[in-house]
Specification:
Strand content: under 5%
Order of helices and strands: HHHHHHHHHHHHHHHHH
Number of strands: 0
Radius of gyration: 22 Å
Largest sheet: none
CATH class: Mainly Alpha
CATH architecture: Up-down Bundle
Shape: globular
């Protein structure tokens, strides 16, 4: 039995309620500081929950169970690195940010190097965030599209048309409360949404354990001798090449997760914007480290859901005759829509949308804040009328949402796991961003031109590593978990070499 009207009403009610809460929780904004930073008065625990909700998105909710279904628990190694990366951000990056009283992560680069570095970093962030979150918006549309396919109202719609409608609905909800409530509204809705989607995942796991005979033990009955519960992977095949290209080897996952988290939580405005909204450095540090602990728990939760789905479908292979899902990302949504009781599926789908909309709203806010603070202000100067600037900020919020929608349309025909697409896109530029921030924080002799040389080198290097094999139809030389580390290493090395050459000349 598919999605029923009771479930649909639960979902619609949820979307209406969070839109109202987000719009009202933002309060009155007098200027862009209130609109983009919440006046710097948001409690640290709310920021921590918001960080988790922002980085989780639909990708975690639907793609992580899919990864466990087709593999094992090795992806959990990446989350160990996430926690280590957050600790570095807390004690290396945040003191510099808070001391400078900055409004965006890239303002730090202007204080350290100059305005060109800030603008270049902001543009790179905008392009990366648009591409990566366009994928996330598309991922959010997957379960809604599955729901719509079961209603006669959409009987004459093609698959592409159904996805377009789904994307438009989701983007509109996130835009409404972000447009009205600003970052404070986004954060408080995130607190609610994290509670809802974690609860939804726990409920799904409980139901799976109750309906699959033998519970977790049943997983091994259909694994063909493969250890589906393997967490740590120390083995690799193919020598050095295999070490860098094999998915989820321990060292690659740990370093990849650590450097990716350092980049995302230390240089990405999506997260840094939230950390700058707290009252003090100490609060920001508590928020970011606590978020790492929560993320480890939730990754484990979603991976276990994936294993139980494997047992529920008796180890069925994707694409096998009689199996209704054609890619891993569809497995969990399909189970929710067609295997859960009426009412329960509505609650869990609401949890899925909670994960999705929180990230989308945060992305819209971070895109508009960086565009206004780093580019618009930088062009026109800082002495602007507060009301006019607030209006321009809301316009930027609207434009950001529209751009993300059009990018999401472009991924409708893509079959690859969207979580790996999104992480791969982000990792191309994350290394350059992280390396530039490390140059600014740890290497005092590096000037703006040297830092930019390193920044560009890191991005070009990763572009070549990823694009060239794709063009020639070859497998990538490195797994995505190495992307940020390599890009960061190249940036730091080239930046220091350029600085030393300048001194010699």
């Amino acid at each position: 039995m598919g999605f029923q009207w009771v479930d649909f009403l639960i979902l619609i009610s949820y979307l209406v309620v969070i839109t109202l809460i987000g719009s009202l929780a933002g309060g009155r904004q007098r200027n862009v500081h209130d609109y983009f930073l919440g006046g710097g008065k948001v409690p640290w625990w709310a920021v921590s929950f918001s960080i988790v909700a922002a980085e989780t998105s639909t990708l975690t909710f639907i793609s992580i169970p899919g990864l466990a279904y087709i593999g094992n628990l090795n992806f959990l190694q990446v989350s160990f690195g996430y926690l280590l990366g957050r600790i570095v951000v807390a004690y290396i990056f945040l003191p510099s940010y808070k001391a400078g009283k900055i409004a965006t992560a890239y303002e730090f680069l202007e204080n350290r190097f100059g305005q060109r570095a800030r603008k270049f970093a902001s543009v790179i962030f905008l392009l990366t965030r648009i591409a990566a979150d366009g994928v996330r918006l598309f991922a959010t549309a997957i379960p809604l599209a599955i729901i719509f396919k079961g209603f006669s109202l959409f009987a004459g719609f093609s698959n592409v048309q159904i996805y377009i409608v789904s994307i438009l609905i989701i983007a509109l909800v996130a835009l409404l409360y972000t447009f009205i409530g600003g970052i404070k509204g986004v954060i408080w809705v995130d607190v609610i949404q994290m509670t809802i989607y974690i609860g939804g995942a726990l409920l799904a796991l409980f139901i799976l354990l109750s309906i699959v005979p033998g519970g977790f033990r049943a997983v091994s009955n259909f694994s063909g001798g493969v250890n589906k519960f393997s967490v740590v992977n120390f083995s690799f095949r193919g020598g050095i090449k295999g070490f860098f290209s094999e998915p989820y080897h321990f060292l690659g996952s740990l370093l990849g997760g650590m450097f990716l988290s350092m980049a995302s939580h230390g240089t990405d405005q999506l997260i840094v914007q939230r950390l700058l909204s707290t009252r003090s450095i100490r609060d920001s540090q508590k928020a970011v480290i606590t978020s790492g602990v929560i993320v480890n728990f939730q990754f484990a939760l979603f991976l276990l859901v994936g294993l139980m789905l494997f047992a529920f479908y008796r180890g069925a292979q994707i694409g096998q005759a009689g199996i209704p899902f054609t890619k891993a990302d569809e497995i969990f949504p399909y189970f929710i829509v067609y295997s859960l009781p009426v009412g329960v599926k509505g609650l869990i789908i609401a949890g899925l949308f909670a994960a999705a909309i929180s990230t989308l709203a945060g992305s819209i806010s971070s895109l508009s804040s960086s565009a206004i603070m780093d580019l618009y202000r930088g062009k026109r100067g800082y002495k602007l009328d507060e009301r006019k600037e607030l209006v321009v900020s809301r316009v930027a919020t609207f434009v950001s949402a529209v751009i993300l929608m059009f990018v999401a349309f472009g991924f409708i025909r893509v079959l690859q796991s969207v979580v790996e697409i999104a992480l791969g896109i982000a990792s191309i530029t994350y290394g350059g961003l992280l390396g530039t921030f490390i140059l600014g924080t740890l290497f005092r002799r590096v000037d703006e031109k040297s830092a930019l040389a390193g920044f560009v080198s890191g991005i070009v290097c990763m572009g070549l590593i990823i694009v060239v094999p794709f063009v020639f139809g070859k497998p990538p030389l490195f797994h995505w978990t190495w992307y940020t580390f390599i890009g960061c290493f190249v940036t730091v090395v080239v930046g220091n070499l350029a600085a030393n050459v300048k001194r010699l000349i």
